[in-house]
Amino acid sequence: MALRTAGSLLVVFLWSVAVVLGQYGWSVTYTTQSICALKGSTVELSCSYTVPSDYTVTTTFWFTEYDAAGPVSLSDDPDYKGRVTYHRDKKNGHTLTITDLRESDSAIYKFRFTDQTGKWRYTGNPGVTLSVTGLQVKVTGRYQDKTLTCSTTCTLTDNPTYIWYKNGTIVKEDTSSLYSHYFSDADSYSCAVKGHEDLHSPAVCKNCWSVTHTHQSICALKGSTVDMSCSYTYPSNHQIKKTFWFTKWSGIDAEDLSSVPGYEGHIEYLGDKKSDCTLRITDLRLSDSAGYRFRLITSGDKFSGPLFSLTVTDLQVKMTTSMFSRWVTLNCGTCTLTDNPTYIWYRNGHKVKEDTTSLYSDYFSDADSYSCAVKGHEDLHSPVVCE
């Protein structure tokens, strides 16, 4: 199993193997039967399978739900659109990758395959139990002598190192999820897991202000939807009067995006009005590229969070040719998309390659044309280029 996030890589090998025995030579072997992963991260679920020598497997997929026709492949489930990929190796191994994990992804995942006749079908039981958790800081103790716990709803599978932040600065790294110290009411504290620092917990404090973004910047595809998430704290003796996002000031205060012409029906505030703040922008336009800030107005003061940078790009194929041959290298896109997508390449309208890299090299003919797209957003592909 491997867990990954943008800009970081954390690999964990689990050698405990759970074998599910089948009848007459049919079986599925899962690498592990239980995984606890962080919300927002990427997880891989792996298995291998066996079939009798006179059968050939033609269909393989993972599922969690059934409909009237039977198990539903995750690749066809709208809740997983653009977030799942399948990888099959030459030795009957199969890996399911789920990106941008959500708490609603917590479920039992099972692998299913079908033979060449379409009549023999086999599902590996009991499957893999995936639990997805966020991080929360829990405070125990009295006065300033308190203990903080970086809490999860399940025990993280990879025995992580916890990182503690005081007012946004790292103060401790330890394999223990506990942190004891002399605490000031004016200080804020949050925690993260090493290798996943961009997925840290909301900050906790008593008499402080803070706005913490899950990411500081995002590159997103024109026409897609983006969520800009953050958490906030404010003095406990204040009451929230208004919260909003803005890009510029108008008059004596910031201008609420929901009142800005052109954003109506284009943005949505998803925060719970207690500590979470998320701005969703749909049908992204190139003009949405800007710096965004979250603002708090309370009964006692006003506070704005740090800048969140959004860059919106369309897909454009850039061609680099060789001086001495017809060999060309093509690049898809103008900035590095934040969600580490799979790129799809088309030659003369036919799919020729899927890869996590945005580069594609080929021997170029004057009669050939090329375009690219991102998996899950095939309707937003680039214009065609040809020589």
TrEMBL record:
Residues 126-193, 306-374 form the Ig-like domain. PROSITE patterns: IG_LIKE. Pfam families: Ig_CD22. InterPro entries: Ig-like_dom (IPR007110), Ig-like_dom_sf (IPR036179), Ig-like_fold (IPR013783), Ig_CD22 (IPR056386), Ig_sub (IPR003599). Residues 1-22 form the signal peptide. The keyword Transcription does not apply. Keywords: Signal. SMART domains: IG. This is Ig-like domain-containing protein. It comes from Hucho hucho (huchen). The keyword S-adenosyl-L-methionine does not apply.
